[in-house]
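Margin note from the TA: students keep mixing up input and output lines. Inputs are the sequences; the output is the structure of the whole complex. Example:
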Amino acid sequence: MPILSIRHRTVYAYADEVDASVNQARLRPRDLPGQRLLNFSLESDPGLEGYEEAEDCFGNPTSFFLLQRPHKTFTITASSRVDVSWAEADAPPPAPAWEEAVRRSQHAESDEARDALQFALESPMVRTFPGLKEYAVRSFPAGRPLGEAAAHLMQRIHRDFRFRPGSTNPSTALETVFQNRSGVCQDFSHLMIGGLRALGLPARYVSGYLETLPPPGKPKLMGTDASHAWVSVYVSGGGWVDFDPTNEMLPGPRHVTVAWGRDFSDVSPLRGVLYGGGTQTLKVEVDVLRN
Amino acid sequence: MPAPESAPSKAAPAAAASLNTAGPKGLVSAYAPSPGGWDEMRDAAGAIRPAWQGLADALEAMGPETLARRTEEVKEQLRFNGVTYHVYGGPRGADRQWALDPVPAVIDSATWSGLERGLIQRAELLEAILRDIYGPRLLMKEGLLPPLLLYSHPGFQRACIGSLDPASRLLQVYSADLARGRDGEFRVVSDRCQNPSGYGYALENRVVLGRALPSLFRTLGVHRLAPFFQALRRGLKQAAPPGTENPNTVLLSPGPENETFFEQAYLASYLGIPLVRGGDLSARADGIWLDGLGGSRRVDVVLRRVDDAWCDPLELEGASLIGVPGMLQAVRRRRVAVANALGSGVLTGSGLMAFLPALCRRVLGQDLRLPSSRTWWCGDEAMREEAMSRFDSMVVKPLYQGPKRSTWFVSDLGREQRERLLARIRAKPHLYVIQERADLSTLPCFVQGRLEPRPMVVRAFLAAADKTFEVMPGGLTRASVRADSAALTGQEGGISKDTWIIASEPIESERPIELAPPASRSERETSTLPGYAAENLFWLGRYQERLEAQARLWREAIGRVSQEGGTDGSLPAGELRLLRACQPGLLSDGSGWESQLIRSLTQREDLGSPAFNLASLRRAARVVRELLSRDAWHSLHAWEEGGPEADAGDEGIGPLPDAGSALLHLDRLVVGLAGFTGMVTEGMTLGPVQRFLQMGRRLERAQAICRSLLAAFPPGAAADRGLLQALLATHDSDIAYHNKYGVDLLPSAVADVLLRDEGNPRSAAAPLARLLEDLAALPRPVPGRSTETEKHALLALAALRVYDPAAQEGILSPGGNEAFEHVVKHVEASLGEVSNRLAAEYFRQRPLTQTLKEWA
């Protein structure tokens, strides 16, 4: 059984003192058929107060807490151990022709399908724009099976867009990403989701971790991993199937799912409201180790 | 009718007599609604409907002159009460005075009880739907509520899923706009579910009209509104989390810029609960707390006037600065109850109306009693096609009415607009709703001396209590300002009316009108005074004092011009310096003092002018209105009687024709402000509210004296007798002076009386000593430790006490001014520090919130 240990450390530094803050974290990996959470802990400086857990509307585990002591830095570390037993996937699942999938999703007849409908609409960070549908539809010729078409779209995004950390931020419009042809995993996922939705297909955003492998013969360096994001497509009758446009791969045992939602705004690892603080700087370190 | 208001007027005012009256016919007999529609007062045959008969007789007997006078009284009373409605985008965010027509809307009690049953059923239905939407969503699974209708509704707050208490009420207040069609049936044109407004205005309408037409209420047996508000109070108490004995309830307001802020303050005062803003509340591990002067206390129930999304920047709209971060989680864990339930905005908007009949049968097992306007949701293919086949007679609305409130009347659209609208619907059908164009019944409105038929909508209100809903017997009726217009929202103006439900059989006569709101609150309520309220009280006191001294100074200066008759009629240089110390830039453009005075009294843009100070005073007063007694509030508006503001409401200032009327206005200002002081000192319990007001006045008084003395005697200037006299008069100390020093005006004696004579309440030292008492009586930020504010006030007072002007040679002579100036400047600096420290120590609010960065 491959077990992945994940350490996700976030350090905030503030220009001015923060009196207090109110926070919500989505850092605890989900329990899923192919993924079992063995343990999870959150450590923080200053210390967490009023800690509570709840499930959000998508079933993601969330943590609420307060920081009530004045502070100028805030360090929070989430540590998880996850037993991942997903099979390595090499081909998208057989599925109906994509037009049929659209038709079925519009006439949702199961709870799952009705629930999926909300992922076929625009969402706060995935708004459509001129050219998006046209871009996506080139992977969707008439009659092509949904899985194959989605994989094709994933490959094209991987090929057409450059991975450039720092080239975007959360306020960058999807259209700008599209025009600049560069971004990070969040952007590629949003783009692929937007394209699928423009065609009427439910698609959701998955946040999580990816175990990176060192070059052959080299030791794995600490702090080189990152939190990751990919896409899940609803295949009516066949559940949700994941695609990773950043790495052009079908997620398998190296991917750990933390949360899903309509887009990043639904699953942000850490949200908070600060009293004071001024300018903020933020550093994130993620390590995914196999043992 | 022998009622006083129906008696023919013996002395009709000249203005009323010249009105274009209804000619030989009476008011009612001349009223002719257009045929074909439903008129509320006259039936199709032209006869007066029975419920209206009593009112119609009274109006007919009254005649246009008396009714015009009643209209003026109503208007005056509303102005006096400061009833306003904030208009977004108006001139400088104008406060529009609330308009109330003296002719009420009458609904017979049989019709009304049918409406009541329908409204209660509707409220119960909507509440059940809301519970399901954020709970099991069975209605969606059963196909009664289309998923797309829900998922594409911007008011659907996903974060609220699972947050609703299955056992408690979700809609503490529900409101519906009702329109009556030409068939005589009432239909709901819109449901208001998240934080309905208007019930405070309805109450104010009743109070004001009850004063204008008191005997009519008695003789006609108009139902009282009080049971609704009693139910609201009970319901809020019952809403508290389990185990709460004496729940603390607050009214959460978006702030004074909100369109219905007047109503929020009015309701808070009427219900006896504090008016707070998001910044006054904060989440702690055990609940939501109200922080303020005198400590913090836990809040159990929040009656909110903030929209869903803006209530919690942590889980809802992150950009909100008017919410309480962590509120939703506190709701989820039942640490606080929020009314109405967070997320209830999803019920607003017309889309749901298309599905209510079927939902009612499923949820309540009953037919929907009170229908909505006929509605088709375009997200449903069959519905869309049906509506499209009659498209041209329809109204199109977005699924959710945002602040823009766009509505398209298809028949009014040009060809191109029509095509564009169709294209938009085709592209995203689920975002549009089509409705039958509601035809509105008409009712008489008093317009230009006659009764005119105008379209109307009645807003009804329900309060949840005791496991049911109490319907307000009445409501807020709004009539269109134009005969043909269907635009009836408050934002676009309109005439409001009281709504009378007339009992079929007489009710036992209790008090005919509602009681005025209680004047003060219990000590416990005021013991937590939010910092912003303390600050605004303080500034209210300061502006009041500042304005008073300024008005006296102008009077003195003008008096001296006319008595001493300067050859060119210009103001004496000393007085001019004093005036400029209050209002920089005064008389620097070479115009005469008369025009400058008129300008200063009317131009609120001129920094430091009386008009500017008055506007600032009013702004501060409005923010803390619910903390002032009703009489104190009234006295703030009393001097406007006939003054330049009288006709222009809170915003504009009318013309002042000449210097004479300006002087008259100055007199009224001085007397009016003194009246306010009296109301505050005599009519309000001594507590933090009064103390902060008084501290503002006291600090301002001491500062004004320093300012005056420095301006009067710059180095090199000599003190002439006239200027000394003006100084004493401006600071209301002439009698104190003459009692102590007789008639001779000596500079050192004037300095003594103004600066350090603690026996003179108008000196600088006396109010400082009182201010120290105020500070000592207030709860200290750190219990047991004196504050920096106190320290600096003591320093200022000590400096005054040790200074002896008599011992200083040549004081207030060209050579001796510098030493004097040094002392006064030192005192002035200390007083400035008092103000700064007060802000830091007592008015301190939590720093502004920001959201955590989410992306490296």
